[in-house]
Design brief:
The protein is of the alpha/beta class. 45% of the residues lie in helices and 13% in strands. It has a 6-stranded parallel β-sheet, with helices on both faces. A 3-stranded mixed β-sheet has the order 9-10-11.
Amino acid sequence: MLRRAQEAFVTPDDHSKTTIGPGVKIGAGANVSRTRNIGPGSNVGLLGLGLMGRPMGLNLLKAGYSLTVWNRTASRAESLVAAGAKLAHSPQEVAGASDVLITIVSDPPALEGVLWGGSGSSQVSGALSTLRPGSIYIDSSTVSPALARKIAAACTERQIAFLDAPVTGGTWGAEKGELVFMVGGDAQVLKDAEPVFSVMGKRWFHLGPNGAGQTIKLAMNLILALQVDALAEALALVTAAGLQGEKLVEVLQSSMARAAVLDVKAPLLLKGEYPPSFPLRLMHKDMGLALDLAKEAGVTLPAAAAAFSTYSAVKAAAKEDLDYAAVMKFWRRGAS
């Protein structure tokens, strides 16, 4: 059942229904507004089975979708295959079997690789080569808005509807089906895809044309990175002054400075334990993309630049995959 809360964030047009399938034509562009029949039983493809992709896939299977998956490391598909998913041998095989294709991979080169068969390749030898006209493609990776617009243009040429829809909510949100999607693209396409979004998320926002979802996601992650960095700095100050960090957190949680992300990350900073819910390497990548976007837009981000330097130092010294809360290590470099 679709949640009423989401209905406020889309403006569907009144157009004829189109059932997705081989041979469907939706006009000259991928974003022509038609209504597609998507729901349990529809064929969904999923490329990328990392910390977020696997639980997203499990929720799709639980909801009754027919799921085909692929990952560079095939062993990551085992839990999904055990739950009923089909493991494909290539991104092309997944795309060719899909009414709705979802990608959630680590970075722009990985996304270009699965779509075009190689980073920057001008020849379509990846998933885009086999997606059928009339199908919907949803990218939930975090990449640059420019790449999202490049993908949108390629999809338009092939009569494929495209939404850039990066997520927030962490692994726990993915497991519970409570992610938040930031969506760029056509409003009617989003309306058509809502049955899929409703299985994986609790809210989704239509933010504008293709690229808008990625722009908001980069800004959101910048806020998260700055908040956690600020708490780490404050803890460093308090402990250097001879007080327990727990005292600061106790007051923080009863003040205007309280934030949900700090409720989650504060225990990690206090314990010095950083299991990767949102890996440092991905936050570092996203901060770099945000700074690149700021440069393109002619905006100076001094706090972001300073925090990026701190995160960079911690990432360079890391010998394992850590959560971005490990920025605390910048002030604990003498500790194990």
